[in-house]
Amino acid sequence: MRIDPSTGLTDAARWCASPNADERPEGTLPELAVIHNISLPPGEFGGPWIEALFTNRLPPRHHPYFAAIADLQVSAHALIRRDGELIQYVPWHRRAWHAGLSCWNGRERCNDFSVGIELEGTDDLPYEPIQYRRLAELLGALFAAYPTLSPERVVGHADISPGRKTDPGESFDWRRLRAELDKRLASSR
User: Fold this and answer.
1) What is the residue range of the signal peptide feature (predicted)?
2) What Rg value do the Cα atoms of the chain yield, rounded?
3) Which of 33, 35, 108, 175 makes a 20 to 30 Å CA pair with 101?
4) Active-site residue among 26, 85, 108, 118?
């Protein structure tokens, strides 16, 4: 997997442009990777609704939960589905609207300097092994394209928005991700 820093696109991802993005502050590079989870409706997987949310086409009447979120203008840079499919919504060098009110190491507005990666899942359901492998592969490609990112700069949404967000949740196995990352980084040397 490779990322072209000039376009911000990932060669192994299906592209689906989200309008919910803009330019980062001048001179700002990605410095932090934020792991999220999402499922729409909550706890259901595989439908078209995440893509619909990120492209402002979520039908508010289709499900009671959708009525409350259909008007949100949100996005992430990428989504890793339960089957490992990778979908990219925003070029990595642009600002996706994924973090909201947030703070990391005393810096507020994490959207300005972070990338957002969604895993299709919930806080309390184990993620699929293929999702960890795909996430490690993607993070390895991001580290290669943007040297300002590193394994020490990968956090959960809950870490930058404590008390407001809980994802990727207790079901996310950080040790497993670190092991997958170590394996990927060792093989790329």
Assistant:
1) none
2) 15
3) 175
4) 118
